[in-house]
Amino acid sequence: MILARYLRNFTNTKLFHQPMPQKQYDYIITGMGCAGLSLAVHMIQSGKFGDKKILLADEAPKDKNDRTWCFWEKDAGTFESIVYRQWEHLWFYSDDFYKEFSIQPYRYKMIRGIDFYNYCYSVIEQHPAFEILYGKIENIFSAKETGIIVEGRTIYSQYVFNSILFEMPSLKKGEHWLLQHFKGWTIKTEEKTFDHHVATLMDFRIAQQHGTSFCYLLPFSATEALVEYTLFTPSLLKEQEYEAGLKNYIENILHIDDYTITGKEFGVIPMTNYRFPTHQANIINIGTAGGQTKGSSGYTFFFIQQHSKALVDSLTRTGKPFITNPSSKFHFYDSVLLHILTNNTLPGKDIFSTLFEKNKVQNVLTFLNNESSLLQDIQIISSLPTLPFLKAAVKQYI
Ligand SMILES: Cc1cc2nc3c(=O)[nH]c(=O)nc-3n(C[C@H](O)[C@H](O)[C@H](O)COP(=O)(O)OP(=O)(O)OC[C@H]3O[C@@H](n4cnc5c(N)ncnc54)[C@H](O)[C@@H]3O)c2cc1C
Questions:
Q1: Residue 132 beta carbon below 6 angstroms from any ligand 1 atom
Q2: Is the CATH number of domain 2-65+112-168+276-318 3.40.710.10?
Q3: Whose CA is nearest to atom 27 of ligand 1?
Q4: Which of 35, 136, 273, 316 is most buried, judging by how many CB atoms fall within 10 Å of its CB?
């Protein structure tokens, strides 16, 4: 087990081996992925945690560009300085409907995983409240005492902020668990090929034989883009099926024959209406394990930032990290859409096409960020085929 404090250096990672102190922390943050690191940065930026002792723990340091995060927001966010690319225009494509949208005042932003990890480490390493521990976390507990067990050793704290999903939840009637899985290639071309001012949010002009399937395209320059083949289905495909899907999209839909693959990404995100517990005693769940992944879209980054901000506000105001549950209306909408996608009563391709064809794009984005008013919700929901949605809504709750 390794205790590393202020020790991260990506060109020459130095980890000091030290005896593990049995000490008390104010907070332990388990998992140094998106949620754990975001929470730490939000704490630091509040300027209120200088007198605390906070332990960040993960199995291993983050030194790979293992994912890219996309999300949309109107203003500059906490991680504005590391936004790699952003777009004010988005394409939506389906067979019968396609359109380039201006999404202003929103901007669709992309952050590279490695930039996020490096940035967070650089901020955390300069802050006296934080220590970093690498080791496999075997358990977290909160009864009389609260803490974690890392490779056989117990470390105590007042609160644990946990982003580790230790086991697959068991689902009850009416709870769905689809997988959003995707394979991406970064491709480079010799000739100018891409309009780097416009990203493609969803392109449904591909076969739907496995279920809801689309590609998206994030152009970094006229000669470089990230292309992703994405599916919302109960199970994964074989490796060669993703590759074939990407090849087909690039060559037969985008009509690009001459390209080099310079990077690869693969990911799986749960799409579920399972209600992840927000907390158990003094364990506060964060990130995907804390229900911050939107069930019907898989988007998580934006919600993690909102959640981190709310936790920090609560800690600074009350000294406690308990926040009121978010409105359940969006959970209901997600459940209905998941019911439809799981039972295949309407093709996802048709639902998303109608959504983008019949509504103002800004309203759709506001709705998908769980920020819409009831009036906006009604306008959006009434644009969708009434009967299948009504049936799904009723079936969801009987
Ligand atoms: C490839 C990929 C691309 C994605 N793209 C987007 C996107 O564009 N937009 C978006 O909004 N969302 C996206 N997501 C979804 C979501 O934002 C990410 O999954 C995000 O990383 C979730 O944050 P998290 O902190 O909950 O989990 P993670 O970032 O996975 O962090 C969990 C951490 O816990 C650690 N850990 C796990 N088990 C243990 C253990 N036993 N002991 C010690 N440490 C442990 C892991 O090492 C990891 O660092 C993407 C997901 C993936 C996989």
A1: no
A2: no
A3: 33
A4: 35
Q: Which atom of ligand 1 is nearest to the CA of 265?
A: 1
**Residue 267 CA to ligand 1 centre (angstroms):** 9
pLDDT greater than 90 at residue 9: no
The per-residue pLDDT for range 35-52, each reduced to its tens digit, is 999 999 999 999 999 999
Say if ligand 1 is within 6 A of residue 137 CB: yes
- Cis peptide bond N-terminal to 105, omega within 30: yes
pTM: 0.94
| Mean pLDDT, range 102-129, rounded to an integer | 98
Tell me how far apart the alpha carbons of residues 297 and 53 are, in angstroms, rounded to a whole number.
36
pLDDT given at position 12 = 30
**DSSP for 69-90?**
EEEEESS--TTGGGEEEEESEE
Please work out whether the CB of residue 63 comes within 6 Å of at least one atom of ligand 1. no
What is the CA(66)–ligand 1 centre distance, in A?
A: 9
Amino acid (one-letter) located at 384: L
In sequence order, what are the beta bridge partners of 149?
139, 154
Q: What's residue 23's pLDDT?
A: 55
| 280 confidence band (pLDDT: 50, 70, 90) | very high
Pocket of ligand 1, candidates 301, 305, 306: which has the most ligand atoms within 8 Å of its Cβ, to mutate? 301
Confidence of residue 190 (pLDDT cuts 50, 70, 90): very high
34 CA from centroid of ligand 1 (Å): 6
Task: Report residue 236 as tokens.
Answer: 């994964």
Asked which of 6-20, 77-91, 246-260 is least confident by mean pLDDT, the reply is 6-20
Q: Is 184 in the pocket of ligand 1 (CB under 6 A)?
A: no
Angle subtended at Cα 252 by Cα 248 and Cα 255, rounded to the nearest 5 degrees? 125
What confidence tier does 80 reach under pLDDT thresholds 50, 70, 90?
very high
Cβ pair 228, 216 in contact under 8 A:
yes
- Tokens 């995707």, located at residue: 182
